Automatic annotation (TrEMBL), chain A:
<feature type="domain" description="ABC transmembrane type-1">
    <location>
        <begin position="94"/>
        <end position="303"/>
    </location>
</feature>
<dbReference type="InterPro" id="IPR035906">
    <property type="entry name" value="MetI-like_sf"/>
</dbReference>
<feature type="transmembrane region" description="Helical">
    <location>
        <begin position="175"/>
        <end position="195"/>
    </location>
</feature>
<feature type="transmembrane region" description="Helical">
    <location>
        <begin position="280"/>
        <end position="306"/>
    </location>
</feature>
<feature type="transmembrane region" description="Helical">
    <location>
        <begin position="133"/>
        <end position="155"/>
    </location>
</feature>
<keyword id="KW-0813">Transport</keyword>
<keyword id="KW-0812">Transmembrane</keyword>
<dbReference type="GO" id="GO:0005886">
    <property type="term" value="C:plasma membrane"/>
</dbReference>
<keyword id="KW-0472">Membrane</keyword>
From TrEMBL, chain B:
<dbReference type="GO" id="GO:0055085">
    <property type="term" value="P:transmembrane transport"/>
</dbReference>
<keyword id="KW-0677">Repeat</keyword>
<feature type="domain" description="ABC transporter">
    <location>
        <begin position="5"/>
        <end position="258"/>
    </location>
</feature>
<dbReference type="GO" id="GO:0015833">
    <property type="term" value="P:peptide transport"/>
</dbReference>
<dbReference type="Pfam" id="PF00005">
    <property type="entry name" value="ABC_tran"/>
</dbReference>
<keyword id="KW-1278">Translocase</keyword>
<keyword id="KW-1003">Cell membrane</keyword>
<keyword id="KW-0472">Membrane</keyword>
<protein>
    <recommendedName>
        <fullName>Glutathione import ATP-binding protein GsiA</fullName>
        <ecNumber>7.4.2.10</ecNumber>
    </recommendedName>
</protein>
Length: 313, 607
């Protein structure tokens, strides 16, 4: 319990720091919201009036308080580019990105774990070098390369999946999956490579442990020794890395969502940055940071379920 | 009588082009018999046992020749030719196995119940309530307190001794006709070792199973064996009943092995430490001459070291581990004082506190009339020239990327004591001093054996001509024959250079052999201190007595039974911040022989 409390406290503290940094950075950037709204050629008096009415002349600490208060009460302000309330806008795009983040992670884990275990039990044989080489290729090539290849193969030649667009899962669940599949696969390939190597090296360490020998000495089948005794111990480090990669995923979705014209958080962040939509930048960055933090908190809780030693600590 | 297992001409290799780890091994194990396979590292004793279970293949080994005939209910079978399914039937059912490291033998993420019942499920089809009841019965058989609670626990919640009992229970689950025990007590404290040996003996008597017991320790052999197989570099060099092996060893190697084992009690009536008798050395050992008027070199007074324990969400200082509690002793010039005790008793922390490798909480440490605890950073550096340390693991304490000559020269460079060709001469002299050939100077640590590495560690410690050497379990990781050589070297250096040793060890027999004075530690305190003869021949404190009683003696006629042993678990040295420990007060038994007074419940071993 103390551990849980510790983690929650540190998440809250980190979120607070992130909010401060996001707010500070967007304020240091040249140009302000009033200038964005009225354009650079506008009347200085009108600009000053707008600044006053938007509260931009207040001390930074007051402006920060207003922003964070809004975030907490659900009033996230309006986007300058989309002329819409930011809250519902982000909510919709977050669903779109959520689908591909979850799917790409599921694809990556579902392939990486068996592949890594397979490489580990056949250590230093052809199976191992095959798995390691393909993992290396996966890491070396950028996501957009995989994206283009997948579009060519699955959309253009085979025609199995659509090459672009987003469908909301509430409207058409299967359609949503079909539209999200290719971007998820493109992201998943990059993730898979890291996770395969992580699974392999952790599993090799675990299989060398004495309790594995004890399990064999009991007469357990090799299948149970590897997949139950071995993997249960190796899975912790693998999901920890997977959790950290969620942060990396939000970097990659900017490219991949643009490539597949898939309107999610990545696409939204890109539009916000491109148009200097300061309120939207602040909110998207904060949301992404919060999601990454919460994912890692979730991974830690999962780790507690897997490993009794952490439960006690 | 048909043997349960008959091994004939077994040969095992690891990889192509390497020497066979087991060359030509033949011996048999009869029903109800304990056969000890004894040998030093690299003798092939573990490989033989793993071959019998056909587990050697998982480590990259191949059985290239030989037969291993196991008697089953439906007739004999050659294990060397058995297929995977047959072997899985045999493992855990007909042959059970226990291993060296109780801390890593159990899967950390499964409950004790799951691990105990795995074998029952696989071999007997037992699950649920039936399996749980059998698991409880097994835990009672191995005398684990509160068995019902243990079933739900995880390995990290159990002490090392209890974990080894669980591992034994796992191996016993399906009532095997043969139990293979591979160094099962090597990693355990001596009191727990005595209990585990007695437990294995009792289980063998009660179930009639045969035991194949692998060990490097002749004293353990004497405690448990019916018959002994001595192995050396992949071959059996001698085999026979345990009494014959100890009374009339035939092979030279067996003789050497026995000579190198210090036996508790063999120093009775001797005034000074004596070097070990080595192989081929027929001359009687020369005792070191005791000093008439010893001068104190190291005076430790009321030394206390606490380690803070942090807890809570803000990592506050919530408790202290009382590692060293009010310790006082004096070490004379040219003498050896040994600190003995079990793991966690504070002996290593005490050694480190003296060098200020950890910062003591209070007390004073005077070396050659200078107070180390009061010294500032610069003075401390100079004072450390007089005090050097040798650690347990010579591989970990040497830098794998540096040539040996550079490592021995480092302290000399550090203090600016020599340079250029003078430095090279000093280093060469040190290699001579520890009896290593000079061409080893250009080598790296991995090119040396364990004993040679420990010689390098000694040479490095000697480089700055210290007056005091703190040796923390310096010979514990070495094979007995190598241990004897290194101990002899240390005694010789003491005689020649007038060195003082603070010898930290858990091994009572070694301590008896080499010490002038002995201090027994328990829960951070010295419970008894005095001249070697007084401690070993007239122990007063109950803890000293039980420690003495637990030591296995290399004599098959002096066996211990489970009923003789009644050790109490050591309480935790962790206390809340408000805890005020009482002062250590001693009763004088004879001149220099002090025994801790029973001042409080926690320091009381056996009231």
């Amino acid at each position: 319990m103390a551990y849980l409390l510790n983690r929650l406290l540190s998440v809250l503290l980190t979120l607070f720091l992130i909010s401060v940094i996001t707010f500070a950075v967007t304020n240091i950037l040249p140009g302000d919201v009033a200038m964005m709204i009225m354009g650079t050629q506008s009347n200085p008096e009108a600009l000053a009036g707008l600044r006053e009415s938007l509260g931009l002349n207040d001390p930074l600490i007051v402006q920060y308080g207003r922003w964070i208060g809004g975030l907490l009460t659900g009033d996230w302000g309006r986007s300058l580019v989309f002329k819409e309330a930011i809250g519902p806008l982000i909510a919709q795009k977050a669903v779109a990105s959520g689908v591909i983040v979850v799917m790409s992670m599921a694809i990556a884990l579902a392939c990486a774990i068996p592949l890594g275990v397979w490489a580990a039990i056949n250590r230093d044989r052809w199976q191992d070098s095959t798995a390691s080489t393909s993992a290396l290729i996966g890491v070396s090539l950028p996501d957009f390369f995989w994206g283009i290849m997948l579009i060519l193969l699955f959309a253009r030649y085979l025609g199995w999946f659509p090459s672009s667009g987003f469908v909301h899962p509430a409207d058409d669940f299967l359609g949503a999956i079909r539209h999200a599949f290719l971007p998820s696969l493109a992201l998943g390939l990059g993730l898979m490579a890291h996770l395969t190597r992580m699974t392999r090296s952790t599993m090799i360490g675990i299989l060398g442990q004495e309790f594995i020998r004890v399990a064999r000495a009991k007469g357990l089948a090799e299948r149970e020794v590897v997949w139950s005794y071995g993997l249960r111990n190796a899975i912790g480090p693998v999901i920890t890395v997977a959790g950290l990669q969620v942060g990396y995923l939000f970097g990659s979705i900017i490219v991949v969502e643009s490539l597949f014209n898939y309107t999610g958080m990545g696409w939204l962040t890109y539009q916000a940055l491109l148009n200097r939509d300061i309120p939207l930048i602040q909110s998207t960055v904060f949301v992404i940071a919060a999601v990454v933090m919460l994912t890692n908190l979730f991974v830690d809780l999962l780790y507690m379920l897997i490993d009794p030693r952490i439960r006690m600590a | 009588m048909t043997p349960i297992v008959n091994i004939e001409k077994l040969r095992v290799t690891f990889g192509k082009g390497t020497d066979a780890a087991v060359k030509d091994v033949s011996f048999a194990i009869n029903p109800g018999e304990t056969v000890c396979v004894v040998g030093e590292s690299g003798s092939g004793k573990s490989v033989t046992s793993l071959s019998l279970m056909r587990l050697v293949e998982f480590g990259g080994g191949t059985i290239v020749d030989g037969r291993m005939t196991l008697q089953r209910d439906d007739g004999p079978i050659d294990l060397a030719q058995a297929d995977g399914d047959t072997m899985r039937d045999i493992r855990g059912d007909e042959i059970g196995m226990i291993f060296q490291e109780p801390m890593t033998s159990l899967n950390p993420v499964f409950t004790i119940e799951r691990q105990l019942t795995d074998g029952l499920r696989v071999h007997r089809g037992m699950t649920g309530q039936a399996a749980r009841e059998r698991a409880l019965e097994l835990l009672r058989d191995v005398r684990i307190p509160e068995p019902e609670r243990r079933l739900k626990q995880y390995p990290h919640e159990l002490s090392g001794g209890m974990r080894q009992r669980v591992v034994i229970a796992i191996a016993m689950a399906c009532e095997p006709r043969l139990l293979i025990a591979d160094e099962p007590t090597t990693a355990l404290d001596v009191t727990i070792q005595a209990e585990i040996l007695a437990l294995i003996n009792r289980l063998k008597r009660e179930t009639g199973m045969a035991v194949m017991f692998i060990t490097h320790d002749m004293a353990v052999v004497a405690q448990i064996a019916d018959r002994v197989v001595v192995m050396y570099r992949g071959d059996v060099v001698e085999e026979g009943p345990v009494a014959d092996i100890f009374a009339n060893p035939k092979a030279d190697y067996t003789k050497a092995l026995l000579a190198a084992v210090p036996r508790l009690g063999e120093m009775r009536g001797k005034a000074a430490p004596e070097p070990m008798r080595l192989v081929g050395d027929t001359s009687a050992p020369k005792p070191l001459t005791p000093q008439d008027h010893p001068e104190p070199l190291l005076e430790v007074k009321n030394l206390t070291t606490y380690f803070p324990v942090k807890g809570g969400p803000l990592r506050r200082h919530v408790a202290n581990v009382h590692a060293v509690e009010d310790v006082t002793f004096t070490l004379n010039k040219g003498e050896t004082l040994s600190l003995v005790g079990e793991s966690g008793c504070g002996k290593s922390s005490c050694g480190r506190s003296i060098l200020r490798l950890v910062e003591p909480t209070s007390g004073s440490v005077i070396v050659d009339r200078k107070d180390i605890l009061a010294a500032n950073h610069r003075d401390l550096r100079l004072l450390r020239r007089q005090m050097q340390m040798i650690f347990q693991d010579p591989f970990a304490s040497l830098n794998p990327y540096m040539r040996l000559s550079a490592q021995v020269a480092e302290p000399l460079r550090n203090f600016g004591l020599a340079s250029g060709s003078a430095l090279q001469d000093r280093v060469a002299g040190l290699f001579d001093r520890v009896e290593l050939p000079r061409d080893y100077m250009r080598r790296f640590p991995h090119e040396l054996s364990g004993g040679q590495r420990q010689r390098i560690a000694i040479a490095r410690a000697l480089a700055v001509s210290p007056k005091l050497i703190i040796a923390d379990e310096a010979v514990s990781a070495l094979d007995v024959s190598v241990q004897a050589q290194v101990l002899n070297l240390m005694m010789e250096l003491q005689a020649d250079l007038g060195l003082s040793f603070l010898f930290i060890s858990h091994d009572m027999a070694v301590v008896e052999r080499i010490s002038h004075h002995v201090a027994v530690m328990y829960l951070g305190r010295i419970v008894e201190i005095g001249p070697r003869a007084a401690i070993f021949e007239n122990p007063q404190h109950s803890y000293t007595k039980s420690l003495m009683q637990a030591v296995p003696i290399a004599d098959p006629a002096k066996r211990k039974l489970e009923g003789d042993l009644n050790f109490r678990p050591i309480p935790s040295p962790m206390h809340p911040l408000s805890y005020a420990p009482a002062q250590s007060l001693y009763d004088t038994v004879a001149a220099g022989h002090l025994v801790l007074r029973d001042i409080e419940r926690t320091t009381d071993a056996n009231p």
